[in-house]
Specification:
This protein has about 475 residues and is an alpha+beta fold. About 45% of the residues lie in helices and about 15% in strands. The strands form four sheets. Strands 6, 7, 8, 10 and 12 form a five-stranded antiparallel beta sheet that branches. A four-stranded antiparallel beta sheet has the order 11-9-13-14, with no helix packed on it. A hairpin with a 5-residue loop joins strand 7 and strand 8. The chain binds iron/sulfur cluster (2 copies). One iron/sulfur cluster binds next to helix 13 and helix 14.
């Protein structure tokens, strides 16, 4: 192998620290509003109460691991209904695809937790250490007393936010007011402190230190979305046809006075200075751009100051960029095959989930045949099979009547369970509970089947008359 095949020098460019500058404008305001709403919901939701009646938790959103329940306002999900989460994941994926098809990485720029917390951490940094210029100067001056004090305060505030982020997370897994009290008095379970520690560390590291590197190097979504996007998706775009050749205001005036072409970009670098990932959008769409729109605000401000039309950077499509170069009017197609397919998939999955949620049964029954032994031959020649029966009651306390069908002459028995006047077994199940009972199906000698028979154990809710059934089989010595 020849030495020519080796690349000399480092394979990767050294990382330049990003010092995003404060910016004002339409997209910055939208980002502040989204930040306040999303963080407000995250931190405060565990304290929202929801009355579900006596004996049930009053927290609106609760993951109740000990009782294996998930509560979301009026919805209560049992472990058997975990498929709803699968549906939610499909809906979330489709929503992400749809957002991407309409407006590129709008999720990354406005709603992704990494973006939201990093934005908050930047705001704290700016408040403590000053804007871009002050922070750069401080770093250049080195560890002066003021710099040490500012950095210490900044990290303290970051850790407080990170700690509260971890604290809010665990409140979704227990009654929030009680857990807050237990945490404060060091009586909470160890696992709560452990999770607070983990979430504190990850928030502090990702939002305070890794920042834009999470988006550029760690997150898979930019790679995936690059394969999903098309020329009709809106992306933050530098309108080079209008901006180039870039030059200062003075040079542009001189060039125009001589009949030469001068673009609207004055090469002020404001779009780069405000960028949270340090991208120069004038180089075109790139992986580092999270489509946050802050460079639009920065450039619009510059354009207003120099009395030129805003919109040198804006949300635009590849199709329109081409049409602009050809002197044609822009066109937009938010409704096209892929967006309609994503929207239809969301409507179908959402519709199925809603229908199944509204029509789901509040009761259920499961039966498990005992394996050892499969059957018992009785002294009189009869045969008995044993089963574990589990009744599920997702609502108020109720009674069930049990009967067996599919095997003529079969009798249902259960130790310690009362019988109704009609001879059927009657079982009470408490509110929002399951009850497991060992039952037997027994046949007299003359009714023993020669081969295994399918049977059905039916449980009838004595309040509503609704019947649920579980199928199994009855085994005899002749099998
Ligand atoms: S280039 Fe503009 S839109 Fe992209 S990340 Fe930077 S500021 Fe945001
Ligand atoms: S902010 Fe606008 S004018 Fe200034 S460099 Fe960026 S694109 Fe050019």
């Amino acid at each position: 192998m020849s030495n020519d095949t080796f690349i000399e020098g480092p394979l990767y460019a050294p990382r330049a620290k990003v010092y995003p500058q404060a910016v004002h404008g339409r997209f910055r305001r939208i980002k502040w509003v989204i930040l306040c709403i999303t963080l407000g919901v995250y931190y405060l939701l565990p304290f929202v109460r929801w009355d579900r009646g006596p004996g049930l938790p009053s927290q609106a959103v609760l993951v109740d691991f000990p009782h294996r329940r998930f509560y979301f306002f009026f919805i209560e999900l049992w472990p058997q209904e975990v498929y709803y989460f699968t549906g939610l994941l499909i809906l979330a994926a489709m929503a992400l695809f749809l957002m991407n098809a309409v407006a590129g990485r709008i999720w990354c720029g406005y709603m992704c937790p990494q973006t939201v917390w990093t934005d908050l951490f930047y705001a704290v940094e700016r408040w403590v250490e000053g804007d871009r210029r002050e922070r750069m100067m401080s770093d250049k001056r080195g560890w002066t007393f003021t710099h040490v004090r500012q950095v210490a305060l900044k990290h303290f505030l970051w850790l407080m936010i990170a700690w509260w982020t971890g604290g809010a997370w665990v409140l979704y897994f227990a009654d929030a007011p009680t857990l807050v009290k237990d945490l404060a008095t060091f009586q909470a379970p160890f696992i709560a402190y452990l999770w607070i520690g983990i979430l504190t560390a990850t928030t502090y590291i990702f939002a305070g230190h890794a920042r834009e590197q999470v988006c550029i190097y760690m997150c898979p979504w930019p790679r995936i979305q690059a394969a999903l996007t098309d020329e009709w998706a809106l992306n933050v775009t530098y309108r080079g046809d209008r901006g180039e050749p870039r030059m200062s205001v003075k040079k542009a005036e001189q060039a125009r006075a001589h009949g030469e072409t001068a673009g609207d970009c004055v090469d002020c670098h404001q779009c780069i200075n405000v960028c949270p990932t340090g991208v120069d959008i004038r180089d075109g769409i790139q992986l580092g751009c999270i489509q946050c729109g802050l460079c639009i605000d920065a450039c619009d401000t510059v354009m207003e100051q120099i009395d030129r039309p805003t919109g040198l950077i804006g949300y635009d499509t590849d199709v329109n960029m081409q049409r602009r170069r050809e002197g044609k009017a822009p066109i937009y197609r938010p409704a096209r095959a892929r967006t309609l397919v994503y929207a239809a998939a969301m409507a179908i999955v959402g519709g199925i989930m809603l229908y199944s949620l509204l029509t789901r049964s509040m009761i259920d029954v499961n039966v498990l045949h005992e394996r050892n032994p499969l059957f018992v031959q009785l002294a009189d020649g009869g045969v008995r099979n044993d089963y574990s029966l589990r009744l599920l009651n997702k609502g108020a306390e109720r009674s069930f009547a049990l009967e067996v069908s599919g095997l003529p002459g079969a009798k249902l028995q259960a130790a310690g369970v009362s019988r109704r006047p009609d001879g059927k077994l009657a079982i009470d199940v408490g509110q929002d509970q399951t009850r497991e009972v060992r039952i037997s199906v027994q046949v007299d000698p003359g009714a023993v089947p020669a081969k295994p028979v399918d049977i059905s154990i039916e449980a009838t809710d004595l309040t509503t008359g609704q019947t649920v059934a579980a199928r199994d089989h009855f085994v005899s010595p002749g099998r």
